[in-house]
Amino acid sequence: METVSIAGYKIDRQLLMKVPYRNDCAKMCSGKCCQGGVTISAEEMNGIYAHMEDVKKVMRPFEKELKSWFKFENEAFFDEDRPGLRGVYGATRVDKHPNVTDADFVSVIAEEEDRGKHQACIFLTLDRRCALQVYSEQAGRHKWQWKPFYCWLFPLTAEEGTITVDERSIGMCFMPSDQAVPFHSLVKQELTHLIGEEGYREMEKLALLAKVSDGR
């Protein structure tokens, strides 16, 4: 995978290229990416837990009373005095998470036993929104204030320290289009949140240079 370095992140060069896609999730998110839960850092978990009672107010009725909000890879996180934090779950470790340097991961996922069907993130609301994002907005903070890194980054992801396109997003968020556009323009919101306005402008300049070098 060829990469460029922007604002301290390695970015897949694919995001500089033009692609025949449109981003349907930018208009109407179906919440499909929340079906399997997500891996988060201990720091993110503690941030969510600190606002637990307020987050409960926007959660699904049959989820907010569950004791198992988080399932852990590391039993050291287990604390019987902290309801909502229990269980052990095999999750990806810190080297897959580019903005955290010293923490294990936990996994935010809950069996939808009331429906007897699939697994989904416990914070997915009945109207297919993220309870953490809804709460962040209600609290007057940035909408992704308490939303885990891998959640707000989607349809991008981080693979071996490189920011790239999550393969699951093709056909889920990115749909075929008659007009080819720079890939980075389809995920401007996520990239700007990650690398900042200045970093995104640098990315636009690199995309123009890539276009020239490719003879387009």
Task: Name its key features.
216 residues, alpha+beta, four-stranded mixed beta sheet, 26% helix, globular
Could you explain how this protein is built, in words?
With 216 residues, the chain is an alpha+beta fold. The chain folds into two domains: 3-28 and 172-213, no CATH class; 32-142, no CATH class. It is 26% helix and 25% strand. The chain is built from six helices and twelve strands. It has helices at residues 42-49, 52-56, 131-138, 149-153, 183-186, 188-213, and strands spanning 3-6, 9-12, 18-23, 38-41, 68-72, 84-88, 105-108, 110-111, 119-120, 156-159, 162-165, 174-182. The strands form four sheets. Strands 1-2-11-10 form a four-stranded mixed β-sheet, with helices on one face. Strands 4-7-5-6 form a four-stranded mixed β-sheet.
